[in-house]
Amino acid sequence: MARLAPFLLTDGRFPVGAHTYSAGLEPAVAAGLTRARIPALLKARLHTTVVTETAAAVLALRASHHDPVDHEPVQQALAARTPTAPLRDASAALGRGVHRLARRLAPDHPAVTALARLRPRPLRPIALGALAAVLDVGEEALAHGIVYDELQTIASAALKLLPGDPLDSVAWIVAVEPEAAAVVAEALAVRTPTDLPARTPPLIERWALEHDRRERRLFLA
Amino acid sequence: MSGPTAAGGQAAEPHHPAVVAVERDASGRHLARELTPGAFLAPRPLLPCPDRMRIALVGTRAGLLAGDDLRLHITVGPGARLELVEPSGLVAYDHRGGASAWRAVVHIAAGGRLDWDGQPFVIAHGARVDRTTEVTLAPGARMLWRDTLVLGRSGERGGAVRARTRAVHDGRELLVEDLDLTDPGLRELPGVLGPNRVVGSVTALGVRPPGPPHPYRTDLAGPGAQVRLVDTGAPEMEADLSALYERWRTETGPG
C-alpha cells in the first residue's frame, strides 16, 4: 500500500471533495487576479498558508504514532493560526471528507478514532495526517503530497476560472519547485505545535471573507 | 540617538522596559502599582475615571534607530481595567543596515480588561524592525487592541517589518500571527499585501464583541474577533478602524 498511497493522496480523482476547493483562486480572481499572476499567487501561498498546513499535517501524522493518539494540540494550534472563519470552515468541510475516507479504510485505527473525538471537527491537515498514518505514508511523502495538491488545486481551478492553455499549469508547477521544496523542509523541521509557523497573508484572508458573502460561486473557498 | 533619553529626570538604560502595572483594590479603586519609564516610552496617568485607569504612553525619543530595543510590559490585575492611549505614533527610521526591535508583553488577570488604542507605526525606508507582542489572558480577561503598520512615509516603498503576535487565553493559543513584511518582493505578491502599504486591525481577545456586522470581521476559533484592513493609504482606513474600535470598546459592556 505504501507505494500507491502517496499517489492516491494527491490524485484529483480522490473522492474527498477537493473538487469543491480552489485553494483561494476563485476569491483571488473575483478580486481581480489575472492569469499572468497565477504563478505569483502560488508563491504567495507557498510562503504563507501552505507552510502552516503542511507542518500541521506532519505533526498530526507524528501524533498518530503515539499511544494514546491526541490530535487536540495540533488542531488547536492550527485553528489559532487560521483566524479567518470561512477558511476554518472550508478546512473543516474538506477534513470531513478525508475523515470519512479514513474511517472507511481503517475504522479502528487509533489515529482515526482520535479524529472523532475532536471538537470542533478536524481541520483538513489533521485528517490528512491521520489518513497518512492509515495508509502508511511517511512524513516526507505526506508533506510533498500536500504541497503538490495545493498547486494542482489552483492549477486545475484555473482551467475553469481563467481558461487558457492547459499546458501552462504544468509549467507553473515546475517553476515553483524550489519554493515547494523549501516548504517541505520547513514543515519537516517543526517539532511542536507551539512552533507551528503562522505567516499571515492579509489579502488572502480578506478575499476569503469577501468570497464567503458571495451568492454565486463555484468553489467553497 | 539625540534628544532626551528619559522622562522625569530618571535615567533609563538602553533596553530598560517601560512598565505599567495596574490593580483594583477591594473597594474598587484603581491603583498604579508600577509606572516605570523605559528607554523609549514613559507612562503618564491621565485624569482619573471612576471605573478604570487611563494611561498615556508618551514617546521620549524621536523614534527607532538601528540597535534600538523598545520593551513594554503591561500587567492588569484581577478585575482591573486599563486604557492605554498613545499621543503619537512611532517611526522607525533608516537603520542603515542595522535592525531594531519592539517587544510588548501583556498579562491580564481574571476579569481584567485592557483597551489599547495604538497609533500608527511607520516603518520608513531602510528600517528593519522585529516586533513581537505576547499576550496572556486569564479566564474572563479581555483585551481590545488597535494596531496599524505603515510601510514607508509618503512616496516610499517602506522598510522591513516582521510583526508577530501570540495571544494565549486560559492556557490555550487563541491567535498566533506572523505578519512577515520583511522582503518587499514577497510582501508585494498577490494575496499578501499586493500594492497596499498600510495594514490596520482592531482585535478583540477574550470576548466576541456584539454589534452590527463589519464586512471584514472574522470571529477567531476561540473567544475573540478581528477586523483587518489593508490599503494604499492610511486616512480612510483609520476612520473606519477608529469607529470600530470605539464601538467595540463601548459595546462589550462594563469592565
TrEMBL record, chain A:
<keyword id="KW-0143">Chaperone</keyword>
<dbReference type="InterPro" id="IPR002639">
    <property type="entry name" value="UreF"/>
</dbReference>
<protein>
    <submittedName>
        <fullName>Urease accessory protein</fullName>
    </submittedName>
</protein>
<dbReference type="InterPro" id="IPR038277">
    <property type="entry name" value="UreF_sf"/>
</dbReference>
<keyword id="KW-0996">Nickel insertion</keyword>
<dbReference type="Pfam" id="PF01730">
    <property type="entry name" value="UreF"/>
</dbReference>
From TrEMBL, chain B:
<protein>
    <recommendedName>
        <fullName>Urease accessory protein UreD</fullName>
    </recommendedName>
</protein>
<keyword id="KW-0963">Cytoplasm</keyword>
<dbReference type="GO" id="GO:0005737">
    <property type="term" value="C:cytoplasm"/>
</dbReference>
<dbReference type="GO" id="GO:0016151">
    <property type="term" value="F:nickel cation binding"/>
</dbReference>
<keyword id="KW-0996">Nickel insertion</keyword>
<dbReference type="InterPro" id="IPR002669">
    <property type="entry name" value="UreD"/>
</dbReference>
<comment type="function">
    <text>Required for maturation of urease via the functional incorporation of the urease nickel metallocenter.</text>
</comment>
<dbReference type="Pfam" id="PF01774">
    <property type="entry name" value="UreD"/>
</dbReference>
<comment type="subunit">
    <text>UreD, UreF and UreG form a complex that acts as a GTP-hydrolysis-dependent molecular chaperone, activating the urease apoprotein by helping to assemble the nickel containing metallocenter of UreC. The UreE protein probably delivers the nickel.</text>
</comment>
<keyword id="KW-0143">Chaperone</keyword>
<comment type="similarity">
    <text>Belongs to the UreD family.</text>
</comment>
